[in-house]
């Protein structure tokens, strides 16, 4: 694999760390800024809103900028956002810093996925994209637990300072290792928006919203489930979160080669497995070893959906791969917000701490239904279909040949 993928993975590590670390720092931030933990939770939403709005906006504005320069600009904005968070004098300024740090998230992964796919030979694109995402999963194994401990001992501002340093290191790696990749001469914002309206792209984005919402319905409350349902002490929360991150990493490693060989079957299998794991989880939560195994499996099958979804929307929006890829991250963050909200509704209704898992199972099953529907529609005459390596062929061409 090219060393440029390492630079993309380091960048993804920094982005993943700052995205998820706030969940572990909410009590510290609330105490320091004199607000409640639920109010501090808006800081998570501020980042997600930044991702949702920034993905299409920054991708459109940067549609004519060379890929390498665009990656550097986006990582620079990410670094500024984290510095703003570290030096925020009050809660409102911290909200603004979190929003600013979230703006480049989706656009970076959108541009990065296109760059990663172009760095390798045909048939290995999914593995290249999965390698970039590996930085995101490693962040949940190492970055988030370490940054949480740092924030608890040295203050939450130190956490964002360290993430800003990671951002600077990522910029240096991008500048040194990523080759110049020019944008297509025909590319413009209006053309990309029209291509984004492809039915298969829209169904892929809907699959991401529904399927990944199932993951976040549980992940958002995993800390509370660890102490309230599994019977572990608070000191074990970091371990459980790390196990989830290990599962994510294993899922990312498996998703690349599987997606290169068979994209849609990988997507169907991961969503189906996700629905099963979420259904079983409430029934094994009080058995400690089984609960820990379920946490690893949840991270694994949940994150295994990301690579095929990314390759699907990129392939189906051939004339707008960057905007489609970036919009996919907007979909993931809508899933983050929606899954967390629905899981909270279930807990507030008195259904128990593990009830978000059953909510998540329904969402994952709905995502699978949309994905299967999209696959069936993709087989109708006049539509394109996915083959090995994420390539797209026209169905009428296949029919003519055979």
Radius of gyration: 20 Å
Our measurement of the CA-to-CA distance between the termini, rounded to an integer number of angstroms, reads 36 Å
| Main pleated-sheet profile | 2 strands, antiparallel
Residue share in helix: over 70%
Order of helices and strands: HHHHHHHHHHHHHHHHEEH
Residue-averaged pLDDT: 83
Count of discrete alpha- or pi-helical segments spanning 4 or more residues: 17
**What share of the residues does DSSP label as strand, in percent?**
under 5%
Q: Largest sheet, order of strands side by side?
A: 1-2
Structural class: mainly alpha
Contiguous uncertain segments of 5+ residues: 381-402
Question: Layout of SSEs?
Answer:
Blueprint: H1 4-33, H2 37-40, H3 42-61, H4 67-86, H5 91-118, H6 125-154, H7 156-177, H8 189-196, H9 199-219, H10 222-228, H11 237-261, H12 263-284, H13 288-303, H14 306-316, H15 321-348, H16 355-377, E1 384-386, E2 392-394, H17 395-401
Antiparallel strand pairs: 1-2
Helix pairs in contact: 1-3, 1-5, 1-6, 1-7, 3-5, 3-15, 4-5, 4-7, 5-6, 5-15, 6-7, 6-11, 6-14, 9-12, 9-13, 9-14, 9-15, 9-16, 10-11, 11-12, 11-13, 11-14, 12-13, 12-14, 12-16, 14-15, 15-16
């Amino acid at each position: 694999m090219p060393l440029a993928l390492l630079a993309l993975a380091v960048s993804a590590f920094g982005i993943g760390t700052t995205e998820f670390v706030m969940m572990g720092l909410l009590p510290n931030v609330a105490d320091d800024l004199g607000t409640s933990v639920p109010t501090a939770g808006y800081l998570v939403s501020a980042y997600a809103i930044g991702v949702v709005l920034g993905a299409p906006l920054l991708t459109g504005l940067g549609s004519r900028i060379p890929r390498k320069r665009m990656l550097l600009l986006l990582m620079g904005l990410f670094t500024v956002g984290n510095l703003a968070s570290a030096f925020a004098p009050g809660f409102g300024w911290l909200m603004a810093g979190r929003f600013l740090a979230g703006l480049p998230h989706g656009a970076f992964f959108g541009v990065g996925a296109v760059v990663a796919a172009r760095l390798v030979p045909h048939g290995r694109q999914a593995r290249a994209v999965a390698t970039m995402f590996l930085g995101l999963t490693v962040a949940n194994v190492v970055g988030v637990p370490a940054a949480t401990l740092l924030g608890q001992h040295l203050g939450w501002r130190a956490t964002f300072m360290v993430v800003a340093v990671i951002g600077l290191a990522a910029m240096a790696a991008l500048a040194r290792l990523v080759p110049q990749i020019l944008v297509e001469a025909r590319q413009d914002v209006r053309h990309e928006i029209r291509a984004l309206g492809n039915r298969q792209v829209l169904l892929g984005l809907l699959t991401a919203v529904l399927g990944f919402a199932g993951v976040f319905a549980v992940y958002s409350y995993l800390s509370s489930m660890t102490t309230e349902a599994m019977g572990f002490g608070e000191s074990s929360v970091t371990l459980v979160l790390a196990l989830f991150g290990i599962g994510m990493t294993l899922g990312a490693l498996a998703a690349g080669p599987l997606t290169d060989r068979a994209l849609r079957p990988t997507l169907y299998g991961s969503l189906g497995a996700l629905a099963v794991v979420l259904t079983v989880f409430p029934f094994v939560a009080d058995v400690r070893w089984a609960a820990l195994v379920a946490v690893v499996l949840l991270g694994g099958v949940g994150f295994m959906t990301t690579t095929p979804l990314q390759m699907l929307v990129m392939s189906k929006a051939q004339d707008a791969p960057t905007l489609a890829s970036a919009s996919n991250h907007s979909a993931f963050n809508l899933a983050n917000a929606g899954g967390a909200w629905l899981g909270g509704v279930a807990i507030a209704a008195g259904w128990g701490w593990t009830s978000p898992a059953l909510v998540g199972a329904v969402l994952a099953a709905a995502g699978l239904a949309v994905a299967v529907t999209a696959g069936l529609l993709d087989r109708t005459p006049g539509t394109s279909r996915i083959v090995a390596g994420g390539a797209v062929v026209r169905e009428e061409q296949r029919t003519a040949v055979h």
